[in-house]
Design a protein that fits this description.
mainly alpha; Rossmann fold; 2 domains; 5-stranded parallel sheet; 13 helices; about 60% helix
Length: about 375
């Protein structure tokens, strides 16, 4: 039986991190097993009874606590936790009153655990609950630790949708591998342009590198909030590459007219298209795609350490064009080999992170 998890938070305090947590927990436990944002309370219903009933259906509550959680005040300058109609306080009190509901304080970005003396009587037991820290700067590993502890505390076995998790995680790590490899390529390109006194080219390369780096690292952490940013970045990269290949001229450098470079660049363009599909498609984001036989075959491949390792290594084919471009730019085989080495290290790192993600979700590896 799947666990039901209630995410309790205050909007003007922790809405961003609560949203990220919701998306990550949805991957692990299923979106239908999460409760969040009880906005549409039926007309004429006692809202306190309604919230109590919603909480009663859950096995665990995550109370997301940020820096202004304790002392948040309303427009009359009254502390919200002390108000009888405060949804946040009502939900937590309802969970604390039930011995069968696990209540976990989630402290955001170094927030201190509230003392019992700072809490109203109905919430004082919260001060005795063991908390867990979640940081925006280390969200991926912190969220994985939270998921692991939830499974242990609730004695859960495998996730409800291990196949979807495996494929979503594999796709995300492969896209992150590509993005970070492009980032590794753009840095030496920017340096080359600077040494050639082509400062416009250097600026373009460094700005693009910064954008792609952000997308790559946030995708590696499986942060769903990066989806639209990632889609725009991939489309931009695809259009820029198409313009360079088509025009044969980019910021004064005409080597894109070379057929070898054009053909190599097409491989990069293909993966930009694949990445754009990943960020832009709800089917990819939810993992629910393709016929069942194909999904089972791909999941078996993704679960296998050897087959998934070969898949990650094979993905380097799509960035091989960057080696050719850098060689033609610098006329240095050493520069091209150095880039390939760095991209290989990135691929190995992303593969290791992928295996760690599977290990943190024990049901995924048994599909």
């Amino acid at each position: 039986m799947a666990a039901k998890i209630f995410i309790n938070y205050r909007r003007d305090d922790t809405i961003a991190i609560a949203g990220r947590l919701h998306d990550r927990l949805a991957e692990a436990f299923g979106r239908d097993n999460l409760f969040m944002d009880v906005d549409n309370i039926p007309v004429g219903i006692n809202f306190e009874d309604y919230l109590n009933n919603q909480v009663a259906q859950c096995d665990a509550m995550l109370s997301v606590i940020g820096p202004s959680w304790v002392n948040a005040k309303d427009e009359t300058n009254q502390r919200r936790l002390d108000k009888p109609d405060d949804f946040v306080a009502i939900e937590i009190a309802a969970a604390l009153a039930r011995s069968n509901i696990l209540v976990i304080p989630v402290l955001v970005d170094g927030t201190h655990m509230p003392k019992a003396s700072e809490l109203p009587a109905s919430l004082k037991p919260l001060a005795l609950r063991n908390a867990i820290q979640v940081r925006n700067t280390n969200f991926g590993s912190d969220a994985e630790q939270l998921i692991t502890k939830l499974r242990e505390a609730l004695a859960l076995g495998r996730p409800d949708r291990p196949q979807d998790f495996v494929m979503l995680s594999a796709n995300a790590h492969l896209v992150a591998t590509f993005m970070l490899s492009i980032f590794a390529f753009l840095i030496p390109v920017g340096v080359f342009f600077m040494k050639s006194n082509n400062f416009a080219g250097a600026l373009a390369a460094f700005v693009a590198a910064a954008l792609i780096s952000v997308v790559g690292w946030r995708t590696l952490a499986r942060d769903q909030s990066v989806r639209m940013f990632g889609l725009i970045t991939c489309i931009g990269g695809l259009l820029a590459l198409a313009a360079m290949i088509g025009s044969g001229q980019f910021l004064g450098v005409s080597f894109f007219a070379d057929p070898t470079v054009q053909n190599s660049s097409m491989m990069v363009a293909v993966y930009f298209m694949i990445s754009a599909m990943f960020f832009g498609s709800d089917q990819y984001a939810k993992g629910g795609w393709g016929p069942e036989w194909a999904k089972k075959m791909l999941v078996r491949q993704a679960n296998s350490p050897w087959m998934s390792a070969l898949t990650f290594l094979a993905s380097m084919i799509f960035v091989s064009g960057t080696w050719v471009i850098l060689y033609r730019l610098t006329d240095s085989m050493a520069a091209a080999l150095a880039l390939a080495s760095v991209q290989l290290l990135i691929t190995v790192y992303c593969y290791v992170q992928y295996r760690k993600a599977l290990a943190a979700n024990p049901g995924a590896a048994s599909s």
